[in-house]
Amino acid sequence: MELQELKDKLSAEKHIYDFTEEGGDVIIRNKKHGVKVRCSAEAVAKHDWATIKSQTVGGRDVNHITRVTGYFTIVEGWNKGKLGELKDRYHSQIA
Question: Is the pTM of this model over 0.85?
Answer without folding.
Answer: no
